[in-house]
Amino acid sequence: MVETSFYIGIIVKRKSTEEYKSLPYICTLLGSSLWTYYGIVTPGEYLVSTVNGFGALVEIIYVSLFLFNAPRHLKLNTIVVVSLLNVLFPIAAIAATRSAFKDEKTRSQSMGFICAGLNIVMYGSPLSAMVSSFLIFTCIVCPNFI
Question: Where, by residue number, does the polypeptide cross the bilayer (predicted)?
Fold first, then answer.
């Protein structure tokens, strides 16, 4: 979280998102939101919902600051991704688990499984920035070796 605060501080200070990607923030917001729901529907898991609710609030601030300082084309792309991943996907996941499983325990387990999968996505999302950097580096360096 400290590293993210550092990057957001740079974005706000320079009034530009520069080469930063919004996908890690968006994926973290998605994971935190669904973990908050998991903590609410699972009996006795109030700490999970409290911690992830705070994390979701912080990520909402980060995504808002990113959108505020992003150029127009990046702003539109980010809004589309946010609306798909952080609005439509949670609604679909919650509706699917509530309609498919009437038992509270099964519903809680299925939501936990979805959240665990999203943790993998959340921690893998910074790799999207590395892939684009690697491809640019490869395109620049490889022709010199041929």
Answer: 23-40, 46-68, 80-101, 121-142
Tell which residue, 16, 133, 10, has the closest CA to residue 70.
16
Distance, CA of 54 to CA of 50 (rounded, Å): 6
Residue closest to 57 by CA, chosen among 88, 35, 38, 40: 35
- Euclidean distance between CA atoms 19 and 35, whole angstroms: 29
CA distance 38 to 112: 6
Residues whose CB falls within 8 Å of the CB of residue 30, separated by 6 or more in sequence, listed in order: 85, 86, 89, 90, 118, 121, 122
The residue among 114, 8, 20 whose CA lies nearest residue 64 is 8
Q: Look up tokens 């909402």; give the residue.
A: 60
What residues does each domain of the chain span?
A: 2-145
Identity of the amino acid at 115:
C
Per-residue pLDDT band at 67 (split at 50, 70, 90): confident
